[in-house]
User: Fold this.
Amino acid sequence: MTEPVFETLDNFRDFGGVRGRDGRQVKRGLLYRSAHHARASDDDLKALSRLDLAALVDLRRTEEREREPNRKPEASVTEVILNDIAQEGDEPFTEFLKTSDLSPKAMQDYLAGYYANAPFEPRHIDLYSRYFKVLASADGPVLIHCAAGKDRTGILAALTLHLLSVPYEDAVADYLKTNDPERMAKRLPLLREHIETLTGRGATDEALYAVMGVEARYLDIAFEAMASRYGSVDAYLEKALGVDDALKGRIEARLLD
Assistant:
């Protein structure tokens, strides 16, 4: 299947097509990731419909979904996974921006701290565990997304590839595709406006690029945190997310050639 090209749907890609350590290949056309769909054009929605998605996993918080509700494709998605768990106060990033000096280092430090804690957030554990269950049984492709499709989505996509025995460096390579220069340039004015509206202050291009992009060390931090708390990433998948050998076997059977 040819990967669709979207007009305004951001950070979309098929993250299959890579090989595991045992030589089997992750099938293409079954694993997709993107940013939110609130600004999807009519043509984008038609392209989404042609994917015949079996499930869509919206990793955003309630207020994010309410502020920028997804536009929906013409073809119905069989299952939509989301939740409203444990969301007191503002979004963490919003709270951070209100008191931050908006420097590049502040942005980078915030993201490093975020990745250390994100795998253990109760709402993420719920969403991630439900995603892996549907991944084992979905009759068609599954798309995961958050707001920008880079952090929450990035961790989950990398965990999926880890489960499928894809070498870590290949998972990182997919993760770093978020740093596409054309994508970043398009998003820059939107993020600048958002931060100025929220804080009444401006941020430098360097700071904006720092928060829009990803660094390999962020994913390292998340994976190291999982291994530190649970003994290994595999143990995190099993003990935190319920991905036991039987579930893993069903996922592999669906997704590996």
Summary: The chain has twelve helices and five strands. The first helix runs from residue 42 to 50. The domain at 13-255 is CATH 3.90.190.10 (Protein-Tyrosine Phosphatase; Chain A). The chain has a mean pLDDT of 95.
